Hints:
single chain, alpha/beta, Spore Coat Polysaccharide Biosynthesis Protein SpsA, Chain A, eight-stranded mixed β-sheet, 10% strand, elongated
Amino acid sequence: MRTDSSPGSLPAREHLPATDAGPPVLDVVIPVYNEEKDLQPCVLRLHDHLERTFPYAFRITIADNASTDTTALVASRLEAEFPEVMSFRLEQKGRGRALRTVWSASDAPILAYMDVDLSTDLNALLPLVAPLISGHSDLAIGSRLARSSRVVRGPRREFISRAYNLILRGSLQARFSDAQCGFKAIRREVAQLLLPLVEDTGWFFDTEMLVLAERAGLRIHEVPVDWVDDPDSTVHIVKTATEDLKGVWRVGKALATGSLPLDRLTRPFGDDPRDREIQDVPKGLARQLVGFCVIGGLSTLFYLLLYTVLRQSGGAQTANALALLVSAVANTAANRRLTFGVRGSRGVVRHQAQGLVVFGIGLALTSGSLVALNAGTSEPAHSTELAVLIAANLAATVLRFLLFRAWVFPDGTVGAPQQSGGPYAPLPQRPMTRHTPHHLYDTSQFRAGEAADSTRRDATLRLKPVRPYDTDPGDSR
Length: 477
């Protein structure tokens, strides 16, 4: 990941100031669908816990996913009773849709969510959001699979959860331990750039968000949690698992083809000594040198091994040319991706062509050294040939790095995907307003059918879909 600043880059993380002014620091979203029995006990318990233990101002937002029972009435009563409680109404189902809509409109710097059944012990809430408040991390997740977690649930759910996370590790190279625990938090500036890239509107939303964040190099903090399974959960396991596997395939394909503009999520690492500016050294040079040297060392070993094999069945010049050609193609591909951060297929042919020009220079140096060696010694020893080739390759390596940096990959972003258009185009930013009693959102673009009374508590907010594909009537989640 690049550490330099670009138009879509995130700013450096900073500790949030301890102040009572402005919007609440934490906005906890509770997505619900037909939860008329569990909603009130959940909100009362969460509100009491935050009031007693959380040192910052907070807000609890109920996101009603098109409930058909009396959930909306319960939410309205709670909103009227507690000034820290808000209620949003969406006319379509989908936990991911609810989170993306509410998080995108929230003005709180820390955004979190938890399931209405409160299966996760609330004592983990402050440890969850503390790394985000301090500026240490970008996202935080509760983990039921951490070694120190204490979990009570049936063997079927335990097997499904562990199997799903093994699939993520094997297919998407995910390093986080628990993708589906309903206990997560994110910094607002990260959400503004990350959420438009997340396509799923249901249960796979969490996984997709975490995979993209991890691939972009964002820091994900994991908190071991105590978790008790809800036997009355309405989640359809088989259907959810099928949709999740489809999501894994879709995201894996997008990552493999380089169609996701993850460079929008780059951010400086803050006070990391590796990123401090060094006098008279161009920015990024130190990191590129390390990567280039590692790849160069591996390429040299590969070249020498290949040369030794080919030399046994042919002449020195032929063996040298073939070994250098194969290793040069591999070296260009590795440096393109790992050293200079160029991803995607755009420009790959031109880069390889330029790499072959650099190869030609290296071939001239090494071949010339062999010619000079043979001119001075009629039958040089194999060890002498290797020593001469190593010296010639060192000189060619220095020249190769300079040419790669100044000519082949001058900015390190040649192959980056475009940042406009397509299914991953950014959402328009919603303007915020502070004219509501709770200094919340600009609700003018979400409210449908406003009542004659101007007070905001007389009707539940109805949120419009934020994406064209959010209008899918077949989404039953």
